[in-house]
Amino acid sequence: MNTRFGPSRSAETPLVAGLPGAWTAIAVALALAIYPLIMSSMDEPFYISIGSRVLILALAASALNLALGYGGMISLGHAAFLGTGGYTVAILAKYDVLASWVAVPAAVLFAALAAFIIGAVSLRTRGVYFIMITLAFAQLFYYLAISLPEFGGDDGLPLSARSTIPGLSIDSDLAFYYFVLFTAGLAFVLLYRLVASRFGRALVAIRENERRMAAIGYPVYRLKLMAFTLSGGLAGLAGALLANLSLGVTPHTLTWHQSGLLMVMVIIGGSGYFWGGITGAAIFLLLEESISTHTEHWNLILGLLLLFIVMVAPNGVMSLRERMRARYGANDRATPKASTEKA
Amino acid sequence: MLYLILEQALNGLQYGLMLFLLAAGLTLVFGIMDLINLAHGSLYMIGAFLAAAFYQVFESFFPALLLAILSTALIGALLERVLYRRLQRMSHLSQVLATFALILIANETIKIIFGAQPLMIGMPASLSGPIELITDELYYPAYRMLIIGVGLVVALGLYLLVNRTRIGMWMRAGASNPDMAAVMGVRIKPLFTFVFALGAALCALAGALLGPLLAVSVGMGESILIPAFEVIVIGGIGSMRGALVGSLLVGMIDTLGRLLLTFGLKLVVDSSTAATLGPTLASMMVSLLMVGVLFFRPQGLFPARG
Fold this sequence. Notes:
CATH class of chain B: Mainly Alpha
Largest sheet of chain A: 2 strands, antiparallel
Number of helices of chain B: 11
Strand order of the largest sheet of chain A: 1-2
Largest sheet of chain B: 2 strands, antiparallel
Strand content of chain A: under 5%
Helix content of chain B: over 70%
Structural class of chain B: mainly alpha
CATH topology of chain B: ABC transporter involved in vitamin B12 uptake, BtuC
Number of domains of chain B: 1
Shape of chain B: globular
Oligomer: heterodimer
Largest interface: A-B, 47 and 44 residues
Shape of chain A: globular
Number of domains of chain A: 1
Radius of gyration of chain A: 20 Å
Helix content of chain A: 55-70%
Distance between the termini of chain A: 34 Å
Radius of gyration of chain B: 20 Å
CATH architecture of chain B: Orthogonal Bundle
CATH architecture of chain A: Orthogonal Bundle
Order of helices and strands of chain B: HHHHEEHHHHHHH
Number of strands of chain A: 2
CATH class of chain A: Mainly Alpha
Number of helices of chain A: 14
């Protein structure tokens, strides 16, 4: 497998940056599997639910990364898909549909459908207009959510119980963590297969030079729409898990502030790197958790940090390794930094 | 009913003109500097807070208004020199993120300085009463009439500035092709600073004028930012005429649409549902209008370029 998809530093795969080696992935998976056991042996159950939160937002950020980092589609409306997933689960639960094998796929499906419709319209525009139109669509979802009293209006919709799995209970924090790990793990494998496939490479190539790809004969619009739809569906999955974690959804999930935060996570980690969304979400949440216990002005620190990152290291944490490497010699590998140039 | 519609139309005009003050600055910055500035709403918030602070010092409305405008313009010019000038060379993604960061910083800084409680600006006493527009039938607050008047004067002033002065000519040249304008001898950098300060001043004007009507609170910038963006996309980025038409359109849809939709819905569903659904549908109609414009006429109703 190394010859085809191997680590991106191999000469044959110049465009797809930052794909993990198999060993890294296995090590990370193992560490994540052991993590809650350590925490429960240390009697720190709080950190288990934080772990679940990190995993879920890592999934959401990675979903956005597929569109933003790999596809170069600057969506400022991904909160809409997160919210669609969450609201699907909550609305189904309101009508006593709690089975996870119904609720979770339904959440993914509806979010993907929303992404398909929004993408089909938005992808006909480009540049700033794309940013604006995704933002406008997300606002539509927000207005819709706050206006329907049946679905909670301003207050949101509480979830009476977590989704059920026949023969299992995911009510405890520990069991829920493993449920999240399993679900998100599957999604990450899917994401890996996607970005390592021909499809993923075509997507990156479109990001780098859309006109050339169109001239070669790739169906540019269709590929981008496919990526956007998949990205929305995965964000919907994260939304479904998030609703289960916090036992409810609020319209706040749908605000453009939330879309912005997802984007911030991707950028902190490194857009267009496989680990970018995951690293970014982890760093973001850990910083938030540790700083907001000391000061209520976490947003000020986040703002300054973000400004620093954009001005100094716009390619995120995952690009640091390459920057180091670049110091030792010519590094002609195209990194995702191309997406920081003006379209 | 007719007078109610008339009154709401005036409210729509007033809201639209205030939106125009924001949208005018936003569209200039967008069009001339090719810069997406999410923090434009923060300048509006800063302007309103400065007006409230000066009002507490002087206990008089108009000096506070003037000082707020001047100091916000100064902040705008400073931001342009320190930050936006660098951002301008970066990608749209970086601009979105950096200005998002500015929103977070501005909101939190305001919270630290002024606290989380909303502030009030007192209305000038001479304008606190209503004026009679149609004998015995239609009264309209004098202060709102003042806002409409100021909005119209500023709109006219901007029109003259952009279309009749040398600076305006540079601005139009910069909006249609900044590189070519620079090559032809327009000193584009001071122009950018001027445009940015002008945009900030307009923000402060809107924020201070609306202060007595709304509570001056943290986060007020974000709630008006989205409509302002919708306005400039509908009108065409970089176009002053587009910003004016778009603002009035959005203002009217939002207020009149709210009234008429609620009224119409009452015929179909019960009145409490209609009361919640009407305003939402009106807000959604603005977003839908923007989506429609982007879909059928991506360059906006009055494109500035080409």
